[in-house]
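Retry 2 of 3 after timeout on previous attempt. Resubmitting structure tokens to design endpoint.
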């Protein structure tokens, strides 16, 4: 059974930590790999440059939405799709373990599942704007 007293705080902890991770991941792209470097990397995968910009925008906007709780459960869905795309286009061919050369799909798969949990569980405590539910 779900503990209804603590579940909202569990959702809060999950969504805020995921949001921080997305901002940290974006920071790596911007400050370490640089935007042109990341665009070039996406091009080396055969993806058009706009995919790099969409990825960075999703990580920024989605990360902030998760942290603040602004329609967080709906923000989690495109981020989950992004993680699925990351598995398919970037990390999937590197094997399971993220420690593998090029990083395997273990960590993105965990992010995908955690984002689906946020989408199913809801915004949690301290959300500034809760997503509507059916």
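Retry 2 succeeded. Sequence:
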């Amino acid at each position: 059974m779900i503990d209804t007293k603590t579940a909202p705080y569990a959702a809060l902890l999950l969504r805020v930590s995921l949001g921080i991770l997305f901002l940290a991941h974006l920071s790596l792209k911007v400050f370490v790999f640089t935007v042109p470097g990341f665009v070039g990397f996406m091009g080396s995968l055969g993806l058009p440059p706009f995919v790099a910009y969409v990825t960075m925008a999703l990580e920024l906007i989605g990360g902030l939405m998760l942290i603040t709780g602004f329609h967080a459960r709906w923000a989690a869905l495109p981020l989950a799709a992004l993680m699925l795309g990351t598995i398919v286009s970037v990390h999937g061919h590197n094997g399971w373990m993220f420690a593998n050369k090029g990083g395997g799909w273990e960590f993105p798969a965990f992010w995908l599942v955690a984002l689906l949990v946020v989408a199913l569980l809801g915004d949690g405590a301290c959300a500034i704007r809760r997503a509507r539910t059916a």
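Attempt log closed. Residues 6-121 form one domain.
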